[in-house]
Recover the amino acids of this structure.
């Protein structure tokens, strides 16, 4: 099968940063595995971080987490899917990735592809959807449903892929005021288009902006540059609130949360699959729920760039984009 991988960690402009590969097909699926024919992929910051920080020592490794495709075969323990089903998923960090024509993946972390989306559009969604959903409803314990006047959730770093889903889920599934942050006009407009009630300027005084709105913020989802915003977060978080982070927090002084009896939690969307938790199939359920929201027109895909076919040149372009730190939404590639 065709695949794209790497053997040594290099900057993305290095000629061997990514390599064309011809690999054996995966073995027949076992247990609850699906064998998926990959039709489209997306690229996330974790792809670039793995390429740069996890040197395989000369052994070939295939990256890729987001994917959409068609089930070609199922393991004997499968109950959720059959051959021919269209699916989308985000894989797991310790198995061969989606930058290949065929991939084995556990059905419990796979969702039915939204019928209203193309494979490329669907491939943009899984990793960011799982991360945003788990951060909001599992880690931050954001209440679903009824209006909560005067209370808000703040999504820091509103232009990226995770925030693009978190804004929509918070607006569609909760009664909170949805605050996002951005510093560029185009990113501000993007956040508003996704449903943010207000967009704060994270290059300015965030606590003052929250105070001016007269809102209480018991939920903060810090997506990037948490260290840079930590003091502001600790000042604006409501007593007994929770802060969820997904990036590195090496410079954070968690004691600053202590006077407010506030808490710090982490979100890692690979945790369930890596540790085979009893509720691992929750990722299948939440992907199916969001697929329904998409098909109902309540949540939209976040593709902002379609880079063409899945090949080395286009995949290198995608890695460079996510490394730039200026992307809105997601970039996808479709077809080998």
């Amino acid at each position: 099968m065709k695949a794209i991988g790497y053997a040594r960690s290099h900057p993305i402009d290095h000629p061997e940063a990514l390599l064309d590969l011809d690999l054996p097909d995966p073995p027949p699926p076992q247990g609850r595995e699906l064998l998926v024919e990959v039709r489209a992929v997306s690229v996330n910051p974790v792809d670039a971080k793995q390429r740069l920080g996890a040197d395989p020592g000369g052994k070939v490794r295939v990256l890729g987490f987001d994917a959409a495709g068609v089930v070609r075969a199922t393991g004997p323990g499968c109950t959720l899917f059959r051959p021919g089903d269209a699916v989308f998923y985000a894989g797991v960090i310790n198995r061969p990735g989606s930058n290949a024509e065929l991939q084995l993946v556990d059905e419990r972390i796979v969702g039915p592809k939204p019928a209203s989306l193309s494979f490329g559009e669907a491939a943009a969604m899984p990793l960011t959807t799982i991360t945003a959903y788990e951060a909001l409803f599992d880690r931050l314990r954001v209440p679903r449903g009824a209006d909560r006047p005067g209370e808000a959730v703040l999504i820091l770093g509103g232009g990226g892929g995770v925030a693009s889903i978190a804004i929509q889920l918070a607006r569609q599934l909760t009664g909170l005021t949805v605050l996002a942050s951005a510093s560029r006009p185009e990113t501000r407009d993007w956040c508003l288009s996704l449903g943010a009630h207000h967009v704060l300027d994270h290059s300015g005084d965030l606590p003052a902006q929250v105070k001016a709105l007269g809102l209480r913020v018991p939920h903060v989802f810090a997506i990037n540059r948490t260290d840079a915003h930590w003091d502001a977060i600790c000042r604006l978080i409501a007593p007994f609130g929770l802060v969820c982070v997904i990036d590195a927090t090496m410079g954070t002084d968690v004691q600053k949360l202590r006077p407010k009896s506030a808490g710090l939690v982490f979100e890692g969307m690979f945790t369930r699959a890596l540790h085979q938790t009893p509720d691992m199939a929750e990722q299948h359920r939440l992907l199916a729920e969001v697929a329904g929201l998409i098909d109902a027109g309540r949540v939209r895909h976040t593709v902002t760039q379609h880079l063409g076919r899945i090949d080395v040149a286009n995949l290198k372009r995608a890695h460079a984009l996510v490394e730039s730190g200026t992307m809105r939404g997601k970039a996808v590639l479709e077809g080998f």
In short: The mean pLDDT is 95. Residues 302 and 329 are 5 Å apart (CA to CA). The two ends are 10 Å apart (CA to CA). The longest helix spans residues 126-139.
